[in-house]
C-alpha cells in the first residue's frame, strides 16, 4: 500500500485504530487476561494529559489497549505515523534508514531507530523457514560485509568485516545469515538448519569447506568463470545478485551497519525479497505480524 492510498484509507487516528482492532480481534474484542468477551471501551488521560482509549474487562477489570503486548506496545507515536513507517519500509526494495524515515514522517532519530527495528522484527522469517526442495537447485556462497580500514593491512581489514553466508533457490527464495568464519564448524549448523534434506542439487564455488558440509551426491562445485552452460546456470550467480542488491542498500541508504544488528537487516531484506511478487499485500502482512509478536523494548536493542 503506497502512501497516497494509505492517507486516503487511514487519514485519521480513529480510522487507523479501528482497523487495528478489527485485525487483532476479527470476532470481537476479548480480555487479554481472562479471555472474557464482555469488554467496554473507555477514555482516560495519561500522564501527558493526552486522551487514551482503553478496554476494560467486565469480569476481571483489566485495562488494556489495542496495542498491548504487541510490537506497538508502550509507544506514544500516533498510529497514522506507524502506518506510514510500515508502508515506507515494506515498499523500499533496498530498505530505508532511520534518519530518512524520521525526516519523512517527523520524529527524532532515536524514535525512528526504535520504530524501524520494531517493524524489522515483524519482517523476519519464522524459525521453521527452510530453503530448497525435491526439484529445486540451491546456490550457496559467502561474502564479506563491512567498510574498508586503511593503514592496518589487508588481513586486518578483512578480519574487521563480517562474513555472511547466502543460500538462494534459483528464481525462488533466499536466506542470508552471518557466520563467525568460513570453517565447517561455523557454516554447517546454518546449512543444516535451513537447507531441506530433499534438495535436488546444491551449487557452490570451489571453497573446500563445502565438501565437508554438503552430501557429495548433491554437490556441484563450479567456477565463477563459467556463467552459462547450454542456457542453464552453472554458477552461484543468483545468490551473488542477492548479495549485490543488499550491499547497494547499505551504500545508498544505511552507509554502514553494526555487526550486532546485521542479522536483523539481513532478515528484513530476505523477507521482502522472498515476497517480491506479493507487493500489494505486504503492508497488511507486516501489520498482522506486528500484532502477533511480543514487545521489543529499546533496552533489548542496545548492548
Distance between the amino and carboxyl termini: 34 Å
Largest sheet: 5 strands, mixed
- What is the helix/strand order? HHEEEHHHEHEEHEHEEEHHH
- Report helical residue fraction: 25-40%
Explain the overall architecture:
The mean pLDDT is 90. The strands form three sheets. This protein has a five-stranded mixed sheet with strand order 6-5-4-7-8, with helices on both faces. Strands 1-2-3 form a three-stranded antiparallel sheet, with no helix packed on it. It contains eleven helices and ten strands. Helices cover 39% and strands 17% of the residues. The chain starts with a helix and ends in an 11-residue tail after the last helix. By secondary structure, the protein is of the alpha+beta class. Helix 3 crosses helix 5, helix 3 packs across helix 11 (282-292) and helix 5 crosses helix 10 (262-274). It folds into two domains: 3-122 and 280-300, no CATH class; 137-257, 2-Layer Sandwich (Nucleotidyltransferase, domain 5), CATH 3.30.420. The protein has helices at 3-9, 13-24, 79-91, 98-105, 109-122, 154-159, 184-194, 209-213, 237-254, 262-274, 282-292, and strands at residues 39-45, 51-57, 63-64, 137-145, 162-169, 174-179, 201-204, 219-221, 228-229, 232-233. Pfam families: DDE_Tnp_IS1595 (PF12762), Zn_ribbon_IS1595 (PF12760). Residues 130-274 form the ISXO2-like transposase domain. This is IS1595 family transposase. InterPro entries: IS1016-like_transposase (IPR053164), Tnp_ISXO2-like (IPR024445), Transposase_Zn_ribbon (IPR024442).
Amino acid at each position: 500500500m503506497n502512501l497516497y492510498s494509505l492517507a486516503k484509507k487511514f487519514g485519521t487516528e480513529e480510522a487507523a485504530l479501528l482497523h487495528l482492532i478489527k485485525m487483532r480481534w476479527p470476532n470481537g474484542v476479548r480480555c487479554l487476561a481472562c479471555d472474557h468477551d464482555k469488554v467496554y471501551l473507555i477514555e482516560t488521560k495519561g500522564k501527558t494529559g493526552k486522551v487514551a482509549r482503553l478496554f476494560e474487562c467486565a469480569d476481571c477489570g483489566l485495562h488494556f489497549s489495542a496495542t498491548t503486548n504487541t510490537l506497538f506496545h508502550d509507544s506514544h507515536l500516533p498510529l497514522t505515523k506507524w502506518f506510514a513507517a510500515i508502508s515506507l519500509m515494506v515498499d523500499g526494495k533496498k530498505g530505508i534508514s532511520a534518519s530518512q524515515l524520521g525526516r519523512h514522517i517527523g520524529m527524532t532519530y532515536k524514535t525512528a531507530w526504535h520504530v524501524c527495528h520494531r517493524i524489522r522484527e515483524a519482517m523476519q522469517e519464522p524459525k521453521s523457514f527452510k530453503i530448497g526442495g525435491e526439484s529445486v537447485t540451491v546456490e550457496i556462497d559467502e561474502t564479506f560485509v563491512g567498510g574498508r580500514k586503511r593503514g592496518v593491512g589487508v588481513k586486518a581489514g578483512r578480519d574487521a568485516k563480517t562474513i555472511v553466508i547466502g543460500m538462494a533457490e534459483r528464481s525462488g527464495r533466499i536466506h542470508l545469515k552471518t557466520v563467525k568464519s568460513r570453517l565447517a564448524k561455523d557454516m554447517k549448523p546454518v546449512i543444516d538448519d535451513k537447507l531441506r534434506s530433499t534438495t535436488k542439487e546444491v551449487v557452490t564455488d570451489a571453497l573446500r569447506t563445502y565438501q565437508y558440509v554438503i552430501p557429495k551426491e548433491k554437490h556441484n562445485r563450479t567456477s565463477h568463470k563459467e556463467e552459462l552452460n547450454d542456457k542453464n546456470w552453472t554458477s552461484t550467480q543468483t545468490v551473488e545478485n542477492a548479495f549485490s542488491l543488499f550491499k547497494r542498500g547499505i551504500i545508498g541508504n544505511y552507509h554502514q551497519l553494526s555487526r550486532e544488528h546485521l542479522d536483523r537487516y539481513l532478515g528484513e531484506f530476505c523477507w521482502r525479497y522472498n515476497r517480491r511478487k506479493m507487493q500489494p499485500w505486504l503492508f497488511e502482512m507486516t501489520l498482522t505480524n506486528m500484532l502477533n509478536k511480543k514487545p521489543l523494548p529499546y533496552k533489548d536493542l542496545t548492548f
